[in-house]
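thoughts on these tokens:
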Amino acid sequence: MEFRYQHGEESYVVRVTERPGGFEVRIGDQTYEVRAQEIDASTLDLWIEGRYQRARLATREEERWVALDGESHHLTRARRRRKRGSAGEGEETLAASMPGQIVAVLVSSGDTVERGQPLVIMEAMKMELRVAAPHDGTVARVLVSEGEAVERGQTLIEMGK
């Protein structure tokens, strides 16, 4: 899974991959082996590179607060956004209807597609959702990748006519 966060002026991409016995967490070009045990809804016991730490978490909408190793960190979930009006004339965007995870991206930029053709498969609330082409046309841009976590309303694909 991939997450994007803002911490002060810095932006971070966090990639989490499940491994036997734990997770591999990549933050930028740093990689960490992590084991986690949930204590309650807001507390995790973590073993990061073999070192024990207790993390306390709080969330509100797109904001996260993490108390870890005696320090508190305020993170804001960064979204991939397209500036208003940046899609070219005749283009339209296809967005996630709910939060979920991208399971498969079935097209690339420049591909010609037919109405109803699946473009992206995502998983949300243990359901598989297919995002299909609304009409015959061309894929202008693919804005997500397999394994990425997406938010409701996040643009997945830009379509051309």
